[in-house]
Design goal:
SHC Adaptor Protein; alpha+beta; 2 domains; 23% helix
């Protein structure tokens, strides 16, 4: 299992890199061929957010869906522990889903549980100008990934001048067509409230998103 540790606007010591490698050993039981883990550490500079000033993001790449988690705490060691707990739960969920697909007896996966939720899906057609504002952290990674292929590392950050600085992270994804059911499952695995994908039925860029209760919505762009 390859592990890549990097800091975003913060330094990462060799001691912490070794600590990450030791901690991630607990994920070895979920290891699949070609599996790698990206670990990004960032620091919040606002003194009012001291309790969550250190953030750790984990992203697992393999020959299946991208699995992601993140957590914040007063120190990066605590944030790492929380992020590992989250991503291990998602790895377990993905493993359960594979068992369901193979016909074995296993707990119901998110994909299986949402397979019959057509009545709870709200479909909306919208133009880019009508699209709702990004929910939670989605503006940083729109849906985390589009499809199971690894996204490119091309990231563009723009700081506007003036009283209100704005940072834009731009990432490019290679999208494989998938069903709404698969998109919902992958949304859960990256821990976001919405997910950008290419609908294999409608043959169009679409977004599934979480609504109140156990309901989901679908947005589609039209010319």
């Amino acid at each position: 299992m390859d592990i890549i540790v990097k800091g975003r606007r913060t330094g990462v010591s060799e001691r912490f890199r070794q600590h990450v490698a030791d901690k991630l050993e607990r994920l070895s039981k979920w290891e699949r061929k070609g599996m790698s883990v990206d670990v990004e550490v960032s620091a919040e500079r606002n003194p009012k957010l001291a309790d969550v000033r250190e953030r750790v993001e984990l992203t697992i790449h393999s020959n299946g869906p991208v699995i992601r988690s993140e957590a914040a705490a007063a120190d990066r060691h605590g944030a790492l522990d929380l992020a590992i707990d989250k991503i291990e739960a998602r790895l377990r969920k993905a493993a359960d889903r594979r068992k369901v697909h193979r016909g074995n007896h296993a707990p119901v996966s998110v994909a299986a549980a949402t397979a019959n939720l057509a009545g709870n899906l709200v479909t909306e057609t919208t133009t880019a100008e009508q699209a709702p504002p990004a929910q939670r952290r989605g503006e940083e990674e729109f849906g985390g990934t589009a499809g199971s292929e690894r996204f490119s590392e091309d990231i563009v950050e723009l700081d506007t001048q003036g009283d209100t600085p704005v940072i834009v992270r731009e990432k490019f994804h290679r999208a494989k067509p998938m069903s709404i059911d698969q998109a919902l499952m992958e949304m859960e695995l990256v821990g976001h409230d919405f997910y950008l994908f290419h609908d294999e039925v409608k043959d169009a860029p679409s977004v599934v998103y979480r609504r109140r209760g156990f309901n989901y919505g679908v947005l589609r762009l039209v010319d």
